[in-house]
Amino acid sequence: MKSHRWFTPYLLAAPALLWVLVFSIWPFINTIVLSFTDARPLRAPEGVGVANYVRMFSDEQFWYGVTTSVVYMVLCVPVLTFFPLFLALLVQKKVPGVTFFRTTIYFPVIASVVVVGIIWSWLFDSQGLVNALLQWSGLADRPINFLVDRWLLIMCAALLTIWKGLGYYMVVYLAALGNLDKGLYEAAALDGANPIQRFWHVTVPGVRNAMLLIAALITAAALRVFAELYVLSGGTGGPGGQAMSLVMYIKQVGSGLAGRLGYASAVSVALFLLTIGPLLLVGWLNMGDSVRENFGRRRNRKAVQ
Questions:
Q1: CA-to-CA distance for 257 and 42, rounded, in angstroms?
Q2: pTM, rounded to two decimals
């Protein structure tokens, strides 16, 4: 049997590497470069140093976007990290009708976010179904402007994100639960652990890696939210653009022939830094034990020497 040539692995990896270079690394580097210029469409950019970043920190609309993105993350991350786990524990049981329940939970995942957003806007409109039910039940004496008030608009969009994401992250937890050793539950039961204790001391540690992965995915998605807020607000970002996310602000600033591409690039870099922080924290929580263990070993070796 003839062995392959030395360059065969590199040849096979070349298309993927080329794709990453052209569509990921080069745009990332170009965005950083443009952030130090006054780039606009149809004209040569000129360097302006850190003027875009100085302007950004005094831009009220930028801080609206930061606040919206952070609040969105705070609303979505805890719910989508823990609630899908409880759903996964429910649908894991073999009971009649569980297949239909799984399909029902997962169905929103395959639905278009734009279509669902339009339906959501009908539901939460001042004359929509939600307001009609609230007034019929006596919980409200007049229509509530869900899609006009800044914070209610953000909460409606976050509710849409949560509803669409439950099924996806439930499947991730189902895969993690399938790899758990059932003997651990039996041993815990023999030791007298009740269901709640078995959940905290067996289930949660067993799905810890999946939980951290889900938290990282939700964090990145929440900070980069666009479609939900864009559809529900009709592209305006709410009253005065106060519910506009950073991605919506980047689109607004950089769109059109008069778009300020340099300033939009600076905001994009800020969004990257805002996103990478929580992801590094999640990575530290995931790898922190091994890192601290290796660090302790090195200190012990130096002490011995």
A1: 8
A2: 0.82
Output Rg (C-alpha) for the chain, integer angstroms: 25
Q: Six-digit token pair at 101?
A: 């329940």
Spatial contact of 35 and 271, defined as CB atoms under 8 Å apart: no
Can you tell me the distance from the alpha carbon of 133 to that of 149, in angstroms, rounded to the nearest whole number? 19
Angstrom distances, CA of residue 166 to CA of 1, 2, 50, 81, 227: 50, 50, 42, 9, 17
CB-side exposure of 61: number of CA atoms within 13 Å?
19
* Contact between residue 173 and residue 85 where contact means Cβ atoms under 8 Å apart: yes
pLDDT for 266 equals 92
Please report which confidence band the pLDDT of residue 296 belongs to, taking 50, 70 and 90 as the band edges. Answer: low
What tens digit of pLDDT does each residue of 228-263 get?
999 998 888 888 888 899 999 999 998 888 888 899
Q: Any bridge partners for residue 47, and if so which?
A: 37
The residue ranges of every structural domain in the chain are: 50-286
What is 50-286's CATH topology? MetI-like fold (1.10.3720)
CA–CA gap between residue 157 and residue 114 (Å, rounded): 12
Write the burial class of residue 164 (CB in 10 Å: 0-12 exposed, 13-18 middle, 19+ buried). buried
